[in-house]
Amino acid sequence: MRINLVWKQYDVLVVGSGGAGSNAAETASEMGASVLVVAKDPLSASDTKISEGIATVRASGSEDDSEDTLSENLQLAGGDLPDVNITSAFAKDSQRAYDKVRANGLRPKISAISKSPDPLPLPMGGHTKRRSIGHKNSGVAFGHANWNSIVKDAKIDYKEDCWLVDIITENNKGDTKLIVGALIYDAQRGELLAVVCASIVVASGGLSTIYFPKTDTMRGNTGDSYAIAARAGAELVDMEQIQFLPFCLTSPPAFEGLLGGEPVTASYLGVLRDKNKKVILDGVYLRTRAECSAAIMKAVEDGRGTKNGGAYLDMTANKRAPKSGVYFMKFLKGSLPSAYNNVRQAMNKSESQCEDLWEVRPSAHYMMGGIRVDENCCSVGGSKGLKNEGIVGLFAAGQAMGGLFGANRLGSTSLTEGAVFGQRAGKNAALHARNESAMNRLNKKLFLEKAKKVNSLIGQKGHLHASRIKLTVQRKCWENLGPIRDERRLNKTKLFISQTKKKLKNVKISNNTKWNQSLIEYLELENMLDTAELMAFAALERDGSLGGHVRADRPNISLFSKPYSTIVRFLNDGVDVTRLPRKQTEIKKLIKFKFEEQRKFLGAKILRLMPMILKDRVLEKRYKKIMNIQKSSITVQPGSVEGAVGDRKIL
Amino acid sequence: MTTKDTKDRQYLNVTIVTHSEGKDMPINFKYKKRHEREKPMALDVLLQAQETKLPDLAFRYGCRARNCGVCTIDINGLPRIACRSVVRENDKLKAMSTLPVITDLVVRRDQISRQLRGKIYRNSGGNDLNVDASEDYHELTSCIECYACLHNCPMHKKNSIDPSESDERYEYGNPFSLLKLQTIVMDPVSSNSQKNDAITQAVNLGLDTCLNCPGCKCGIGIDLKGKVVNPLITASKTIADK
């Protein structure tokens, strides 16, 4: 059997129909470009749709919220790894980008006083201003707006159930690589699409599925964005920086990996215990996510892990306090409702009432690194970050891109990231296509060769199944490339990946052309392997703990050391790794920050050591204060700095 | 306790109806419980089947938390969201009957969205966005697009469920499409002509079918009859009277 090849021609191809993809498609179309959106999942079904639905909009809370302030907040949170031009672009566009989503039907609550959307009553952690706007129906409301933006005026062509196989480039003028199109497997129709186009926007999300089921994100996050861009020759940045949420559920299977709580919801008296009930981490509410995750994984490694490979989160002391206990439960339920809802369904009553311990384990949540781009979402490369050293015509937005968050992410920023950079990518992709016609350079042979390669897979004989190898990859990535890493583990990952790649020729692939699940599994497996390989190289290069990257065999990277990003790319059948120096925040600001953090930790320690009667009284006051100020029930967003105030300490 | 009893408690017998090239093939699958009291969801069963007996089993899923709306299948003939539907002994898991099956439990979905292509006019700037939407608007935008509402819908039944390849869209509507149109009517930002257009679109999709229908059922509990169908019927009558 052969899959038929169908030729298509567009100005702009957008890969992915989530927050970034839909915004890119709409903007490119408004610029007059012909646009095709392809996505493997149904329209708009993405991490955006399943998110908590809180978006950062500059100056929504106060007029003195300047672009510089927001950009600086992102820089500090990201440990100086973010690209200043990219954080500035985020700050510059957030209002306009958000209004564009509103034009498609997103309806926030409007304040009677300001006559504009009202942000949450307190700044979210790491933000120095109130600027995080919550929405009814959370991410689903964004899902509708994004859906509308693609469907509304029939100008944008879209195809669901499409897996992008490879981007096709051509060499031009020396070493410069230019986009000429892409080869896509349309599973719904059983066709291979040869899309000839000058611009491609990669907006196909993250990679958390390489840790499945230890993740709370969409299944489709098989690292496609990074793998397809890297195979085309693009550089990737900060690929070791993945955000793990430490307190996720371990069972039953249907809830495995989903969020249970954040460090801050463990509240003042929450501690972590190993299987023997011995305390392995106290003062949890002030710890970083990485610290919590590392403590859990360390216990597991020493054979002190719980049945499902985690640890116990003990919040019983919060609950037991005679006066403040009631307030604690209100705080827990109100501050992270979706997570508490998971707990209520998955655990028994005494557990969900915090009278018993929660079995918890980290989960992968968000990829902060990604395709190296400039503030216009153009792929760039080399020591100066030049466009002609990237892939000319390749753009990336949303979780696929790197350079905005660096080592840590501020809460409520990812939805805005999708809108801001989706729109920027769409605009620049359309402009590029105006000046460049892929048809002028069309070399059919390049497409035919790729198509031949895919067709040679159809009916491949073998004794292995890609879906099962995926499970092994997921287990190995968790063990050796997960929330705790060291040189031995990372080298093991590299070895495992190269061995597994050799096995691919023995994977059995069935004969059918329409929705060939074994072919789909194979294509995704390849992407997972390529992505994991690049991550392992970046993680080895980053030889100390920083942000989402925890090296058990190396010390923490100091706040005062010279910051750098890791850059990885495929080169001559291998992986090339370099360091890219980043600009450091003024020492004065760093010292001030460090001092404030130390003061907070001392306060927490004193509180823990107080006798119960005193402690109870202090806590009652604190809870009352929190609840009085925060009238809104949404206060903590999973993955936000506020969810783990300790994350600020690493800066 | 006999050995057989213990065994019964360890396993759950389920039928998974696979589908290839136009033909259904039911397969008996023994789900192995992680512990005696486990009450697995349909998605747990499908994942284990793929891991063990059926490595190439095709099915959709996404968030595993009832938010993304893509994992809907039929359980014993009724549409259910697989990630949050408990499976019982002898249950039958099959692709949704209301949409064309591609392979195994995967159905083609996009002929639904395509029937609204170019028809959901949205405010493209100029209008004041700073107006509050009603509770009803927000109830409608809680729809996760699971398509459970297609079940028993007389309007949707007027379509040939399995259209030819070239058929990009269904001619007749369904509760989801009506919901999207009613969202425009409920949107405080929509102009009167946009609202009237939306109501006309609903009529063109076959709204009259709803007149004799006892009402539709939403997968996540939106009051489709009260908040979508009835208001559209009333509004369409007002327009017709004019």
Fold and architecture overview:
Chain A has 17 helices and 22 strands. Chain A is an alpha/beta fold. Chain A has three domains: 11-241 and 368-449, FAD/NAD(P)-binding domain, CATH 3.50.50; 247-363 and 591-650, no CATH class; 457-570, Fumarate reductase/succinate dehydrogenase flavoprotein-like, C-terminal domain (Methane Monooxygenase Hydroxylase, Chain G, domain 1, Up-down Bundle). Chain A has a six-stranded antiparallel beta sheet. Chain A is globular. By secondary structure, chain B is an alpha+beta fold. Chain B has two domains: 3-107, Roll (Ubiquitin-like (UB roll)), CATH 3.10.20.30; 110-241, Alpha-helical ferredoxin (Fumarate Reductase Iron-sulfur Protein, Chain B, domain 2, Orthogonal Bundle), CATH 1.10.1060. Helix content of chain B is 31%, strand content 15%. In chain B, the strands form two sheets. In chain B, strands 2-1-5-3-4 form a five-stranded mixed beta sheet. A two-stranded antiparallel sheet of chain B has the order 6-7. Chain B is elongated and about 70 Å long. Chain B starts with a helix and ends with a helix. Chains A and B meet through helix 3, helix 4, helix 13 and helix 15 of A and helix 2 and helix 3 of B.
Main features:
heterodimer; A: 651 residues; alpha/beta; FAD/NAD(P)-binding domain; Methane Monooxygenase Hydroxylase, Chain G, domain 1; 3 domains; six-stranded antiparallel sheet; five-stranded mixed sheet; 22 strands; globular; B: 242 residues; alpha+beta; Ubiquitin-like (UB roll); Fumarate Reductase Iron-sulfur Protein, Chain B, domain 2; 2 domains; two-stranded antiparallel ribbon; 8 helices; 7 strands; 31% helix; 15% strand; elongated
